[in-house]
Amino acid sequence: MKRFINIVLILTFAGLCACSKASSDLIVSIDGQENNITKTDYQKIEEMVNVDDEKDYDLLLEYLFYQYDVKVVEEMDILQGDTKTTFQWKDIADSTFWRNVSSLEVDDEEYLVDKIILRTGGDAKFEKHSITDIAALTSEALSIPFGEKESGFSIPSGSMEHVVWIFLDGFGYEGYQTAEEEGFIPNLSIIGELYPAYTIYPPKTSTSTAALLSGLDSRENGVWAPGIRDLTVPSIIDAVVDSGKHMTIVEGSSTPFNYPNAEIILSGDRNGDGSTDDNVFENAQKAIAEGIPDLIMIHFHGIDDAGHTYGPYSLEWNEKVSEVDRMVGQLIEQLPEKTLIVLFPDHGMHSIVGDSSLGTHGNLRLDDMGIYIILYQK
Amino acid sequence: MTKKNTALLTIVLLAAFLVGCGPKAPDVDWTLKISGEVTTPLELSFADLAAMDQIELNDILMEKTTGDDVITSWSGVSLDEILTKAGAAADYVSITAIASDGYSIEITKEELTGAIIALKDGDDWIAEIETDKGPIRLVAPSTPANRWVYAIMELQINK
Ligand SMILES: [Zn+2]
Ligand SMILES: [Zn+2]
Question: Which helix (H) or strand (E) holds A208?
Answer without folding.
Answer: helix A205-214
